[in-house]
Structures are given as C-alpha cells and as structure tokens.
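Hi R.,

Here's the chain you asked about this morning:
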Amino acid sequence: MSTHDTSEVPWSDGRWTTEPVSTEVVDGDLLVTAVEGSDAWRTTSYGFIHDTEHALLRDLEQDSAVEVEFLVDFSEQFDQAGLFLRSDETTWIKAGIELSDGQEQLGAVVTRGESDWSLAPVPYWGGRRATVRASRAGNAVTIRARVDAESWRLVRVAPLAPDECVQAGPFCCAPSRSGLVVRFLAWRTTPADTSLHP
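And the predicted structure, written out as tokens:
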C-alpha cells in the first residue's frame, strides 16, 4: 500500500449530495448532524429507493486513493458513517461502519442500478477511530478499513471503469432516528495501492 505523498483534504473542498442538519468544524474535526431518515439504497430486498445520504464529495482520479477517518460512536439501528464513492444516482458505493442488529458492522454497499450489501461484525471497534480507504486503479476500486493503527483489512473489490467519472469523500446516514452526530477526523488523498495483496 502507498503511504507516501499523503495530502489532507480541507472540509471546504467537498460538496454535499444532501445537506445535513448542520456542520461544525471543531479543533479541525468536522461534526455532522444527520437528518432523520437519511440513507442510500436502491431497490434490492427492501423495495425502496433512498438517495438522501450526507456525502461530502470531490473528484477521485484514476490511480489515486482516498481515506476518511471518523469516530465510531453509534447507538441506534443503522447509524452509519464512512466513505462514499458516486458516479451518478444509480452507480455508487458506500463503505464504513454501521450499527446493525445491536452491534458495529464493517461493510459495503455496491450499487449499479440495484444495491448489494456485505457485513462483518466488528463489535470491538466502538468508541475508536476507524479509517476507510478506497483505492482506484485499473478496472477496479479496492476498499480497505482499519481501526486505530491496526493492520488494514480488505473489505471489498468492485469493478470501476478507468474512464468513469467518480467523486468520493466522507458520508453519514441516520435511517432510523434524529440526533446522530458523526465526528470526522480526517479526509486524505494518497497514490493508489500498488497491489491487491500485501
């Protein structure tokens, strides 16, 4: 994985897909209050389409990677935050931590017309700093995540055409309640990972 040439992205560089209730920068961190019912999903299993996520996005070029770091502090069903990649309303990926069925889960939703969803429980990530990374190279985007300074773990490899126009950045949603505040700690860009496996 590439660790050189890391650049911090100012919070002011992105544009929201859906405006949150409020945002505030405190000690360099971005605090985002989510709208009740905000979510991103298309059709599969549930039957509905939700396109109301709070994603702060800017262009993600080929052969580059983006990281979002945030505090895992969720208490209600489907509270979620992480990294969002978007081509258009029917082509996007969200990856991060979600409170599902009573525990923190690390997962991703990959959407091309319809959504799919994968999850893995990470109950010991609560109250800690999670980082989600999307690396774009060749015909794919590779999603990795870690907590604190632990080793990166592979979350997902998904197809992404080299010439596809994509934007990426931090996101959060609160599908089931009001009052969710997510503290984003960093937004960074780096060169793309040099290989799929260490």
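The first strand starts at residue 7 and ends at 8.

Let me know if you need anything else.
M.
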